[in-house]
Amino acid sequence: MTNKPWNIYPRPQFSRDSFLCLNGEWEFGVGTDATKPEYDKRILVPFAPESRAGGLGITIKKGEFLFYRTKFSLPENFHQGGDVLLHFGAVDQIATVSINGTVLGTHEGGYLPFSFNIAPYLKEENTLCVTVQDDLDHAYPWGKQKVARGGMWYTPVSGIWQTVWCEALPASYIRSVKMKPSLVGVELVFDAPEEVEVVLESGESYTTVGGRVFVAPKEIHLWKPETPYLYTFTAKMGEDVVKSYFALREIRSEMIGGFPRLTLNGKPYFFHALLDQGYFDDGIFLPENHERMEEDIRLAKSLGFNTLRKHIKIEPLNFYHWCDKYGIVVFQDAVNNSDYSFFFDTALPTIGQLSKNDTKLHKSERARRIFRTHTLDMIQHLYNVPSLLYYTIFNEGWGQFSSDEMYRICKEADGTRIYDATSGWFLRHESDVDSRHIYFKKLKHKRYKGYKQALPFVISEFGGYSLRIDNHTFGKDNYGYKLFENKESLTEALLQLYRDEVLPLIDEGLCATVLTQFSDVEDETNGMVTYDRAVVKVDMGVMQKIATLLKEKMK
């Protein structure tokens, strides 16, 4: 396989020298009988069959199975005598994996990684087969995918859509590390059979006791978007060597100046965010090359934003690494499941019905169980990411059930982050923020009386201003909440929106805003940049001026 897209190490915060990328051209087919695989096509992994980057651009129908097959050999001296793990970054929705005729297992859910130990089954040349079923079963997290795409719904993504790779391990190895940072150091908790030596890049050395060690660097540098300092270290246990990094930072909710505020490292901080859907014109869930995703983060920073709300999608770990590195806070959404009703979940809230008892909503116990499991797995998967400070559990009532209980479950799993239990509307009683979506009215804050106490106020979606750029659009449709004819009028409208409506609300306790959105997505033309990322639709100097006004307001 000479063409290996995304041939970069896929787990930057827990890296080893051992890495064999299996991305590239695979045999592929579609059929209706899972026991009779067909391989009459070729696909470029890790891109979905619906995408242009994958080389097919086909539609997968309900009841069809996707069949993948490739052959590979391990490099000389790759196998170290221990496990050889076969990793999948993400496969949507149900994947059954076999190697050399032996079924390794099945994984359900399309947004999180999984792996199998293939050491017992290896040969000189190995045949890897993956059978995938993706009927867009709404009991599983499905995000913004819809067969009848259009408007706020996008082209579905099926099958393998993140890197497939192998990793060789010694007989005894470090399985994982959990990082619990503070403003003076970090507690590292290792899942390892022996003691682990931790060596910082500065040369400072620590050794675990009972799998734990508290690392207190001699020089303290706190992580924030303006100075995203990362401490790199090496963890050693016998023959196993893992390279990683951590950051020192802390987010809290505190009463300051008579208002509840979000603080970063003990100081009030305004989170100036963009909604980021993570869709691309070529690969849909992934761009054709990883540099384009990295450039998105750099561009958001250049536009003056310090935060991205990762909307109803979980990205490859490289995305979060670049946010750590360049200094972009991540507000991470859980991926919605269950059905979405435009009438109940959009139309009624838009005209003012913002409260609803959710204990009896979306009563399918199977769907509830899957959402709980997937959300908790997401929290554990992203636990160590320094830039991730905030989670959204439910968005605009979509799949919402027992949100107070879900808030408590998530908070127990990771109490170091802020949780937005019900983003937009249908607020209940327990959350870390009072979170509203305001698109068609003037921005204002009327305190919600259902919370036990006043909470930091967040406008978690607003704007949606649309500018269509000819020759850089997905199709003929034009979806947005307010239409503009040119770059100048769009930029001036955004400046006026922040100057006249956002800035005054900061004096009333506003802590964060999330502007819709970073890029156009298919019919949606309300991005700062076009879907193909070729045109920046706003004046960067004015956007940086807005960011400066927000910073000065917080002084």
Please provide a written account of the structure.
- With 555 residues, the chain is of the alpha/beta class.
- It has 3 domains: 149 residues, Galactose-binding domain-like (Jelly Rolls, Sandwich), CATH 2.60.120.260; 71 residues, Immunoglobulin-like (Sandwich), CATH 2.60.40.10; 303 residues, Alpha-Beta Barrel (TIM Barrel).
- 17% of the residues lie in helices and 30% in strands.
- Strands 27-26-25-24-23-32-29-28 form an 8-stranded parallel sheet, with helices on one face. A 6-stranded antiparallel sheet has the order 3-2-4-10-7-8, with no helix packed on it.
- Helix 1 packs parallel to helix 2, helix 4 runs parallel beside helix 5 and helix 6 runs parallel beside helix 7.
- The model has no long low-confidence stretch (mean pLDDT 95).
Keywords:
3 domains; TIM Barrel; 17% helix; 8-stranded parallel β-sheet; Immunoglobulin-like; alpha/beta; Jelly Rolls; 555 residues
Distance separating the two termini = 55 Å
- How are strands sequenced across the largest beta sheet? 27-26-25-24-23-32-29-28
Rg, please?
23 Å
Mean pLDDT rating: 95
Tell me roughly what share of residues is in helical segments.
10-25%
In the residues, how many domains can be counted? Answer: 3
Looking at the structure, the CATH topology of the largest domain is TIM Barrel
Q: Strand count, sense and closure of the main sheet?
A: 8 strands, parallel
Number of strands: 32
Which band does the percent of strand residues land in?
Answer: 25-35%
**What is the chains' assembly state?**
single chain
Top-tier CATH class of the largest domain: Alpha Beta
Which CATH architecture of the largest domain would you pick? Answer: Alpha-Beta Barrel
Number of helices: 7
> Which overall shape is indicated by the principal axes computed on the Cα atoms?
globular
Q: Which superfamily, in CATH terms, is the homologous superfamily of the largest domain?
A: Glycosidases
Q: Give the class from helix and strand content and strand pairing.
A: alpha/beta
- Spans of 5+ residues with little confidence (pLDDT < 50)? none
